[in-house]
């Protein structure tokens, strides 16, 4: 990891640890950061569970998902997700792919996953679902065409579900990414519980816009990040 900028490496390691600690990632799933030194590359751990990632485990990949020469350690099977999003979305500087259990019911039914709380407004509106079956029976995203199709479904949004598999979450920085990834899962849990009780009242578009702006503001984001860091370092 000799040419990885230390602050970026530190943030990415923390994001791995936090997202594992908060039950967004488990043995599987991964998080990446666009290389601040070269927007044509991204940083991601070698194939390792996120709770165990250290700075020494980080790899540098190009936007075709290829490791920089000299790093022979195995990469995650689904780096094509990250590469495709970075190719398509110049505004995105951080990506998370998870298999978090609470979101799965919304990926296999037509019940929409959309925000019901102010803190989940960061998810945006309806979260679209991508179906890998459109391209064949492989549920894992291993190829550029699969990654491109997923990125098209994501569109300009912050998250997309993957049918019977998980989700992808994207953001302009690693702190916002961590926040959105955590809130997406919490919202799915709360929405599933609410649907058991009766008709659900979702946030309006105006409520989403106002709450999202407030929660993604630096004061709120720094406070949330400090809280999550304290939980992994505590
Ligand atoms: Zn996966």
Chain-wise SSE layout:
Elements: H1 6-21, E1 30-34, E2 41-45, E3 58-62, H2 79-88, E4 94-98, H3 104-107, E5 129-130, H4 144-154, E6 159-162, E7 166-171, H5 174-197, H6 205-215, H7 218-233
Helix pairs in contact: 1-5, 1-7, 2-4, 5-7
Bound molecules: zinc ion.
Zinc ion binds next to loops.
Task: Report on the architecture of this protein.
By secondary structure, the protein is an alpha+beta fold. The chain has one domain (6-233): Class II aldolase/adducin N-terminal domain (L-fuculose-1-phosphate Aldolase). The protein contains 7 helices and 7 strands, in the order H-E-E-E-H-E-H-E-H-E-E-H-H-H. It has a 7-stranded mixed sheet, sandwiched between helices. Helix 4 (144-154) links the parallel strand 5 and strand 6. Helix 1 (6-21) runs parallel beside helix 5 and helix 5 (174-197) packs across helix 7 (218-233). The longest helix is centred in the last third of the chain and has 24 residues, at 174-197. It is globular, with a radius of gyration of 17 Å. It starts with 5 loop residues before the first helix and ends with a helix. The mean pLDDT is 96. Residues 78, 97, 99, 165-166 line the site of zinc ion.
């Amino acid at each position: 990891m000799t040419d990885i900028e230390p602050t970026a490496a530190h943030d990415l390691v923390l994001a791995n640890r936090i997202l594992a600690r908060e039950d967004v990632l488990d043995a599987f799933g991964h998080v990446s950061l666009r290389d601040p030194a070269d927007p044509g590359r991204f940083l991601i751990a070698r194939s390792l569970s996120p709770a165990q990632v250290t700075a020494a485990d980080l790899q540098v990949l190009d936007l075709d998902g290829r490791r920089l020469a000299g790093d022979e350690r195995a990469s995650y099977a689904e780096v094509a997700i990250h590469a495709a999003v970075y190719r398509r979305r110049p505004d995105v500087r951080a990506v998370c792919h998870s298999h978090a259990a609470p979101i799965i019911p919304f990926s296999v039914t037509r019940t929409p996953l959309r925000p019901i709380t102010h803190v989940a407004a960061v998810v945006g509106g309806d979260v679209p679902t991508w179906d890998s079956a459109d391209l064949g029976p492989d549920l894992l995203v291993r190829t550029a065409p699969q990654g491109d199709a997923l990125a098209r479904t994501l569109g300009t949004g912050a998250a997309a579900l993957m049918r019977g598999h998980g989700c992808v979450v994207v953001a302009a920085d690693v702190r916002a990414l961590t926040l959105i990834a955590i809130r997406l899962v919490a919202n799915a849990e709360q929405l599933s519980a609410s649907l058991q009780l009766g008709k659900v009242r979702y946030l309006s578009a105006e409520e989403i816009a106002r709450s999202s702006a407030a929660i993604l503001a630096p004061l709120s984001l720094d406070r949330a990040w400090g809280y999550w860091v304290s939980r992994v370092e505590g």
